[in-house]
Amino acid sequence: MINKAIKTAAAVVASAALVFGGVTTSFATEATPAPAPTASAPTVKLTKEERAALKAYRDALGKFRESMTKFAADKAAFRDAMGSYQSAMKEWATTNAAQIAAIKAVQTTFRAAVSAAGEVRKTALAAATTAEQKQAARDAYNASVSAARSTMTAALAVIGPLPAKPVKPEVTKPVKPVKPVKPTPAPTTTAP
After folding, report:
1. What is the pLDDT along the chain (192 residues), one digit of tens a residue?
2. Torsion 48-54-60-62 (CA) sign
3. Who's near 102: CB < 8 A, 6+ residues apart?
């Protein structure tokens, strides 16, 4: 019986130690994790040709980075030049259309004045009986056309010449450089 009591007491103490000890150690293990061992990659010995190829790749990569910087600057300059050209073209198109409309209005007015003078001449020639009356009708017609022409010339001078079309910039679109290919070491065979 004493044996049984000793075994029971030992079991209670052991289970209590496990319960209370587990709580304490669980906090300790969470606070400081153990570093995991890392496997290092095996080092590969490069041949002279492979080292030269790697050096050439590094040089080409440096040149590529420089050319990418230049490409970005050229692309921004191209975008700016084309943007200013497009805005100049829109402004030119608006101004040009307005001037063409004004010129057409002046020309329409001139044609209407000449047509009206022609109708007056036709009526005067039909009513004229003498050569002097016919000549007076022609002179009146010529004077009306001359007055209309001078009015048209003055109006066209006020309108002015058509604006010059903007010149497209001579900037070529930049070409993106090609990234160099990284050399891979040749597989080495090991003798068994």
Report:
1. 677 777 787 777 677 666 666 554 455 455 566 666 666 666 767 788 888 888 888 888 898 999 899 899 988 989 999 999 999 999 999 999 999 999 999 999 999 999 999 999 999 889 888 999 989 999 999 999 999 999 999 999 998 888 889 988 887 888 888 888 887 766 655 555
2. negative
3. 159
Which two structure tokens, joined as six digits, stand for 77?
């300059």
Number of H helices, E strands in the chain: 3, 0
Q: Return the biggest CA–CA distance within the chain.
A: 167
Distance CA 31, CA 25 (A): 10
- Cα distances (Å, whole numbers) of residue 38 to 20, 53, 133: 34, 30, 120
Angle at 136 between CA 130 and CA 139, to 5 degrees: 145
pTM greater than 0.70: no
Q: How far is CA 63 from CA 53, 74, 137, 177, 184, in A?
A: 15, 16, 86, 10, 20
Q: Is 181 exposed, middle or buried (0-12, 13-18, 19+ CB in 10 A)?
A: exposed
Extents of the domains making up the chain: 48-159
